[in-house]
Design goal:
Shape: elongated
Helix content: 55-70%
Structural class: mainly alpha
Radius of gyration: 35 Å
Number of strands: 0
Strand content: under 5%
Distance between the termini: 105 Å
Length: 78
């Protein structure tokens, strides 16, 4: 009652792994000096914007520790 497996009708798919193309992709073009400088400038601008927003937001994010002493001094005067 052993059945022999039938050959796969799509045997060419198994052979596709062995296939190699003789067509090479074109070589990548080198970036010009202006393009490289532009990328650096864009990157520096983004980093400077992130750092600047962090520096400007730090006073708003910090919790003031002197508020209790200021409030107590104001309440003592009245």
């Amino acid at each position: 009652m052993l059945r022999r497996r039938e050959p796969v009708p799509f045997a060419f798919l198994a052979e596709a792994d062995r296939f190699r193309s003789n067509v090479a992709p074109p070589p990548r073009q080198r970036s010009s000096a202006g393009q490289i400088a532009g990328r650096w400038l864009l990157g520096l601008t983004l980093v400077a914007g992130l750092v600047g927003s962090l520096v400007l937001a730090m006073p708003a994010l910090s919790t003031p520790s002197d508020t209790q002493t200021q409030q107590s001094q104001a309440s003592q005067r009245h």
